[in-house]
C-alpha cells in the first residue's frame, strides 16, 4: 500500500491549518472592532467560500493562480514555477476553504468575550499585545481550539477545490480524498475502502485528542484571567 496520499494530506492540512490559525485569529480580532455595517460586509466576503461549492472556489483559484492568471503568470515569469498541479497548490485550496471556519468560530468567541476584563487590564497599564495574548486568547481558547480542529479536519477531507488546482498525480499530488475518488473510478472498491477507513481513524483520533486537551486544561472562565491580572497587579 502506497502511503504517499496520507503523508501528502497531513502535510497539506498541517500547513494550511497553521496559516489559517494566525490569519483567522488576526482577521477576527480586528474585524470584531469595526462598526456593525462594515463588519457585516466583511463577514459576507470572508465567509463566501464556506457557502460556495468547492469546485466554484477551485475555479476562481485556477483563474487567479493558474499559469494565465494574474498571480500565477507573475510567479511563473519571475520565479519560473507554477502554482497549480503541484502538492503545495493544494495549500491555497484548503486554506481558502477552511479560513471561514476559523474566522467565524473565533470571531464568535471574541464577540462573547467579557470586555470588562480588557478595561480592567488597561487600568493596570498593560499593553494591548499583553492583553490579547494573556487575557483574551486564554479566555477564548475553547472557541479557538474548536476552530483549529474544524479547519484541520476540513483540510484533511477537502476534495473539490483541491482536485481543481492539483489534479491527481500518484506520488506527487495525490491526497486521501482524490485517491478514494480515483480508486472508485477504477472500480477498486477494496482499496478505496481502506483509505476511507484511514480517513475515519484520523478524524476520530483528532476529535478524541481535542476532548482530552479540553478536559486537561478546563477551568472556570475568569479564574485564569483574574489570576493573571492579580499577578500583574502585584508585580507592579
From TrEMBL:
Per UniProt, subcellular location reads as: Cell membrane
Name the domain of life. Answer: Bacteria
Stretches assigned to the ABC transmembrane type-1 domain: 6-214
Instruction: State any GO CC term.
Output: plasma membrane
- Its principal location? membrane
PROSITE patterns linked: ABC_TM1
Task: Provide the membrane topology annotation.
Answer: Multi-pass membrane protein
- Entry keyword set: Cell membrane, Membrane, Molybdenum, Transmembrane, Transmembrane helix, Transport
UniProt xrefs under InterPro entries: MetI-like (IPR000515), MetI-like_sf (IPR035906), ModB_ABC (IPR011867)
Write out the transmembrane intervals: 12-32, 44-65, 85-103, 195-213
MF terms from GO for this chain are: molybdate ion transmembrane transporter activity
- Which NCBIfam families does the protein's record reference? modB_ABC
| Family statement | Belongs to the binding-protein-dependent transport system permease family. CysTW subfamily.
Q: What does this protein do?
A: Part of the binding-protein-dependent transport system for molybdenum; probably responsible for the translocation of the substrate across the membrane.
Stated name of the protein: Molybdenum transport system permease
Q: Which organism is it from?
A: Synergistes jonesii
